[in-house]
Amino acid sequence: MVSRVVGNNNPLQVLNNILLKTDQGRVKLSSTNLEIGVNTWVGGKVDKEGALTVPARLMNEYINNLPSEKVTLESLDNSTLVLESENYHTNIKGLPHEDFPLIPSIAEEAFAKIDGTELKNALSETVWASAQNETQPEISGVFMAFEKDSLRIAATDRYRLAERTVKLLGPVEQEKEVILPARTIAELYKILGAGKGEVEIYFSESQALFKFDETELISRLIDGQYPDYRQIIPKSFKTEVEVPREELMHALKAASLFVPDSNNITLEVKPGAGITVTASSMAAGENTTQIKAKVTGEENGAVFNFRYLLDCLNNLAVTTVRLKMINDASPAAVVPEGRDNYTYIVMPIKL
């Protein structure tokens, strides 16, 4: 768990390491890349206090190859870790713990508490929509807005937007908006694992801390103003289509094979006829797929980046979705049938 945030070939050698330290009868493992820090505690019998750092990758791969779950650790001269497990005896060269960067702590009371399963589900439906371009740090991160007894999570790259609202386990004393690096959110998602349990969220002026079970994740906050994205969400639509999620996914994947040099596919919807998905190119040929769907409103159509639609559909665990459209130049929306806590906005492509 802690080794994931460690980079490769850091110029500061100790950043390639994890810190092992005895802490009140347990072993504390820590790692950091100076943007994200992770602390986790494991139970064990502590005979002598000690601390040192060892290479994260070597330690992780070695432990994974041991046949026994029981391991004895001993520190020699502050720079060598001795590991013993059944017939295995190993010395791993490390660095003094004094060289390891201090991972800050947030001593204040928890700002908010949230169910781990709900948080993990919300992250899986949003984080992938953030921008990959770090020249725009605000939208390369994930937006969180704490409002009374709910948390609103959003991610956008200006071409698409994913927003999910989650209930908190209690109201917050004051509303708060923050932007977190997308990598922080990706690591948080992995740490949550099965997601069962309560997540406590803490803030300082420039950092956030997520505490789950015996693990803490600490991250810097992105300084800046998140775009007022809600102004681009349409208030009404001219056409709504109720369509099976998997059928639409299969149609999009089939169409994608016929646009090897672009991501452009066409969706046409007609009342009484359903959805027609088409794609063509000079090199590959042409593909048309007809999907039975319930269409409400007027006939409509637009060209979309198929990857943007698949990103959404792949991360929604529902049977049916609603596709909402205005025209071929206005934002369209995808929402899960029977839920009002999620909205995905995607811009059509102007040819």
TrEMBL record:
<dbReference type="GO" id="GO:0008408">
    <property type="term" value="F:3'-5' exonuclease activity"/>
</dbReference>
<comment type="subunit">
    <text>Forms a ring-shaped head-to-tail homodimer around DNA.</text>
</comment>
<dbReference type="InterPro" id="IPR022637">
    <property type="entry name" value="DNA_polIII_beta_cen"/>
</dbReference>
<comment type="function">
    <text>Confers DNA tethering and processivity to DNA polymerases and other proteins. Acts as a clamp, forming a ring around DNA (a reaction catalyzed by the clamp-loading complex) which diffuses in an ATP-independent manner freely and bidirectionally along dsDNA. Initially characterized for its ability to contact the catalytic subunit of DNA polymerase III (Pol III), a complex, multichain enzyme responsible for most of the replicative synthesis in bacteria; Pol III exhibits 3'-5' exonuclease proofreading activity.</text>
</comment>
<dbReference type="InterPro" id="IPR022634">
    <property type="entry name" value="DNA_polIII_beta_N"/>
</dbReference>
<feature type="domain" description="DNA polymerase III beta sliding clamp C-terminal">
    <location>
        <begin position="230"/>
        <end position="349"/>
    </location>
</feature>
<feature type="domain" description="DNA polymerase III beta sliding clamp central">
    <location>
        <begin position="114"/>
        <end position="228"/>
    </location>
</feature>
<keyword id="KW-0235">DNA replication</keyword>
<keyword id="KW-0963">Cytoplasm</keyword>
<dbReference type="InterPro" id="IPR001001">
    <property type="entry name" value="DNA_polIII_beta"/>
</dbReference>
<keyword id="KW-0238">DNA-binding</keyword>
<keyword id="KW-0239">DNA-directed DNA polymerase</keyword>
<dbReference type="GO" id="GO:0003887">
    <property type="term" value="F:DNA-directed DNA polymerase activity"/>
</dbReference>
<keyword id="KW-0548">Nucleotidyltransferase</keyword>
<dbReference type="Pfam" id="PF00712">
    <property type="entry name" value="DNA_pol3_beta"/>
</dbReference>
<feature type="domain" description="DNA polymerase III beta sliding clamp N-terminal">
    <location>
        <begin position="2"/>
        <end position="104"/>
    </location>
</feature>
<dbReference type="Pfam" id="PF02768">
    <property type="entry name" value="DNA_pol3_beta_3"/>
</dbReference>
<protein>
    <recommendedName>
        <fullName>Beta sliding clamp</fullName>
    </recommendedName>
</protein>
<dbReference type="GO" id="GO:0009360">
    <property type="term" value="C:DNA polymerase III complex"/>
</dbReference>
<keyword id="KW-0808">Transferase</keyword>
<comment type="similarity">
    <text>Belongs to the beta sliding clamp family.</text>
</comment>
<dbReference type="GO" id="GO:0003677">
    <property type="term" value="F:DNA binding"/>
</dbReference>
<dbReference type="InterPro" id="IPR046938">
    <property type="entry name" value="DNA_clamp_sf"/>
</dbReference>
<dbReference type="GO" id="GO:0005737">
    <property type="term" value="C:cytoplasm"/>
</dbReference>
<dbReference type="InterPro" id="IPR022635">
    <property type="entry name" value="DNA_polIII_beta_C"/>
</dbReference>
<dbReference type="GO" id="GO:0006271">
    <property type="term" value="P:DNA strand elongation involved in DNA replication"/>
</dbReference>
<dbReference type="Pfam" id="PF02767">
    <property type="entry name" value="DNA_pol3_beta_2"/>
</dbReference>
